[in-house]
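Why does residue order matter? Because the sequence determines the fold. Keep that principle in mind as you read this record.
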Amino acid sequence: MTVTPYRQDWSDIFGDEPQSDGEPRRIIVPTVSTAGRGAGATPFTAGAGYARRFPIDALPPDMRSYARDLAIRKQVPVDLPALTMLGILGSVAGPRVTIRRDLDWRQPTNLYTLCALPSGAGKSPTVDELRRGLWKAQKALSEAHELDVAAKIVELTRQVEEMRTKANDISTLPDERDLLRTQAKALEKQADELASEPPPSPELVFDGDTTPEALAGSMALNNGAAAVIDDEGTFLRNLGGQYSGGKTGNLGLVLVGYDCRYYRPKRVTRVADPITRAALSLVISPQPGIVADMMRNQMMEETGVVNRFLVCIPGELTGYRTERPSTYFRDTPNQYADRTGREWWASLLENIVRYEVIGEADPEDAATIELTRGAWKMHREYEQAVEVRLRPEGDLHRISAWATKHTARVLRVAALLHLAGGASSDDELSESVMAQGHCVLG
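Structure:
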């Protein structure tokens, strides 16, 4: 089996010399999906390199259609909407859904994605539209939260009435009456506090202008879940020391949050409640120079922060955006823009958010996507193919720290494509969807 990871050798991106493989330096048409490695030229300050064009044809039909539509309307490389959609899907599914390949190997479904484009290349309008697609999911989450709070108040009120009825029963002993009345009073106070100051509704998205410490505090109040969608790269700059005099920020949460593990900061000056399952998603679209700074940060490299990201630097279309769709508003007064893709996207996220957050529950009880035997066999073969290439003589040896996480990433992406295709955790992930996951990541 031929295996080509989506992210090429880092020297391809940050090397001193551009590669001369005969491919064009710039992609003019953002809908091209069959171009090979080298098709997306990426010149920037740190050097020159190339990124493989995102294989959009491997996406489920609705997802493929919307990614292509966004690329055309916003005049951006198709890599940006495609990778951002995967990241946002992971941000909603990660706290709620897992995928299991083996009896004892289960993966979360969150992702860290990074698609870098220069300023003015159109990344913000693209990311903004995809971020707005979360509003239905956020509304559904808020409504479910309100119903849950109301149900708790009703239950507390019921318990209060039950206790007082029993306390007024002539058959109840005096000491027991006093205890029941005391307990009823405490529960009544709890119900009143819950009604007057209900806990805040869970949030799906947090702004990138936050520190790891502040984010950990927010996650502790948010069932352990958080997604940072940042089209400026502010969060990466904060990790790199923007608010700490150039000293690299606390990377613990970023490391643990990728694997959805237990997190409890132990530094005296950084107090936060422990998080049983820290499910973090990072969907970042910075300028390429910020990616270069991250790569040069020794602490981020040594701790493996960099190796958790799916990275794409597709090259910009600035100067060649001559086919942007445009219709003067007086010409078609009775027609409206096609919103099919946006409506599909919002409904998909709303459906996924209805799964229960794992939080403090046992992951074994969580919504879990299982594989068909054919999908299991395919991923096993893929794993073995990657393993051979990690040997000293293999082409992945130089980036082994990144590549060793790649087979698990394929599982995560396959699970997201499974959900994006309209399937649920009750449906087994098919061999064809696993093939799509392999194709997307290589």
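Residues 285 and 402 are 20 Å apart (CA to CA).
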